[in-house]
Structure formats: structure tokens, C-alpha cells
From TrEMBL:
Keyword Zinc: no
Keywords associated with the record: Methyltransferase, Transferase
Protein name: Methyltransferase, FkbM family
Origin organism lineage: Bacteria, Bacillati, Actinomycetota, Actinomycetes, Mycobacteriales
Molecular functions per Gene Ontology: methyltransferase activity
Domain (Methyltransferase FkbM): residue spans on this chain: 45-212
Keyword Methyltransferase: yes
InterPro entries from the UniProt entry: FkbM_Methyltransferase, FkbM_mtfrase, SAM-dependent_MTases_sf
Transmembrane feature ranges: none
GO BP term (any one): methylation
NCBIfam families: fkbM_fam
Length: 241
């Protein structure tokens, strides 16, 4: 979706328009064509940034509870201001990973490109302005430290947008995966962050644990048409049968 098309979609929805004008938060409407068709009552939003996906989710799933995770202080502050009056949205200012502890976040010139993994030169070549500009110490936990997934109203969606750290987050919530009906994860097909798991590894890992890749959407390609990244929707196989 190009920027002009996205802006037009945002401006059509009053709550999206208000969020953009007051907080400079653009709802993640690029997910609408695929995710709005799902029946979802609980959302776990890992990599919440300033609230782009949570804002979309409050509109797409009007009765769902949304639990978001964003470790960086700046984006988390914007998120908290945006959802101050939303009782269905909860924010935890922590990162999720394979184990609890502390870590260094590599802060990008575009904060939504920040990662717990070092940002490669290739990332900045493909997306100018996303090189590291600072670091920030953050707390890392596993999903079970913050959420009792057994108490979820289903169906439940796990969304991951953590800039190459997706597989580590999944490992940290492996025992909770049975509580989810859907997993939506951004996947890269070339290394943008040092040591990241690429899309085929994520696909294989989730397939081994009962999730089938059902849709790939929002592809981003380089100037000669090589696929860089895309969003991937996985569905629990027991839901497909």
C-alpha cells in the first residue's frame, strides 16, 4: 500500500483521523484487507511502537481486548497518551524475548525500525534513515510474565512486529501458543538485522507447532523486484480442520 492510499483510508475513519492529527499516529490500515475478516476477541500486540496496530485493532475488532508491548520510552509515551481513555487496551513497557532479563535496544532513526538486534548496513541501504542513532537499555520478559493466556476470550491473535526478533519472541511464548488461533508476523527474506531469523525459519518453526501459513500480504521489494519482507498470517491447524 503506498503512502497516499494509506492516508486516504486513514482519513475516512474519524478515530484514525484524530489519532493522526493529535498524536501523529497512523493506524496500520495495511492489515485491514486480511485481518479484518477474522473473528478475534483477544489480541497480543508485540512491538506496539506508538500504537499503530493497536489503533487498527480497536476498530477492526471492536469488542476485543488488546495487550501491547513496547519497550522504548518515547514510543511508549505516545502510545499511553493515545489510549489513555481506552479501557480495552493495556500497554506493558517491556520487550518480549526467549527469556527474562535486560538488553540493549538499537534505536533507529525511524523508531519503528528499532530492534534488539544490531541494525545492518543493508537495512539502511534499502530504507534510508533507519540506521542506528542511539541505544536504550530495556527490560525483557516472556509472555507468561504479563499475560494469562488461559483466561483469554477466544479467538485470539498474536501479532509480532519486532524487527528480526520474531523467532526469539515465539520461543518465549511457545507454551502459550495453544491459546492462539492466529499468528501474524512480519518476515524478512534478506538479512536486515544481524543474526535475525528469516521468513522461512519462522514458517518452519510455526509449522512444527501446528500453525499453517495461510496468507502472505503487503510485500515490499527492492528496486529490481527482489522480495525484502512481507506480513504473514498463520492459522492453527485445528481451526482449519
Amino acid at each position: 500500500m503506498n503512502k497516499a492510499s494509506k492516508l486516504l483510508r486513514i482519513l475516512r475513519v474519524p478515530e484514525y483521523r484524530t489519532a493522526l492529527q493529535r498524536h501523529r499516529v497512523a493506524a496500520a490500515v495495511e492489515h485491514a484487507a486480511v485481518l479484518s475478516a477474522l473473528d478475534v476477541s483477544s489480541v497480543v500486540d508485540v512491538g506496539g511502537n506508538r500504537g499503530q496496530f493497536a489503533l487498527f485493532a480497536t476498530h477492526a475488532f471492536p469488542s476485543a481486548t488488546i495487550t501491547s508491548f513496547e519497550p522504548l520510552a518515547g514510543p511508549a509515551g505516545t502510545f499511553a497518551a493515545l489510549f489513555r481513555e481506552h479501557s480495552r487496551v493495556t500497554l506493558h513497557q517491556v520487550a518480549l524475548g526467549a527469556e527474562a532479563g535486560s538488553a540493549t535496544m538499537h534505536v533507529s532513526g525511524h523508531d519503528d525500525s528499532s530492534s534488539l538486534l544490531p541494525i545492518s548496513d543493508h537495512q539502511n541501504e534499502l530504507f534510508p534513515g533507519t540506521a542506528e542513532v542511539a541505544t536504550e537499555a530495556v527490560t525483557v520478559g516472556v509472555l507468561a510474565d504479563f499475560v494469562d493466556t488461559a483466561s483469554f476470550d477466544g479467538p485470539a491473535l498474536l501479532k509480532l512486529d519486532v524487527q528480526g526478533f520474531e523467532l526469539e519472541v515465539l520461543r518465549g511464548c511457545e507454551s502459550e501458543l495453544g491459546s492462539f488461533d492466529y499468528v501474524c508476523a512480519e518476515g524478512s527474506f534478506t538479512e536486515l538485522y544481524e543474526g535475525q531469523a528469516l521468513a522461512p525459519q519462522i514458517i518452519d518453526w510455526l509449522d512444527d507447532r501446528g500453525f499453517s501459513l495461510t496468507t502472505v500480504y503487503g510485500p515490499v521489494a527492492d528496486d529490481i523486484g527482489r522480495l525484502i519482507q512481507a506480513d504473514m498470517l498463520f492459522t492453527a491447524r485445528d481451526r482449519l480442520s
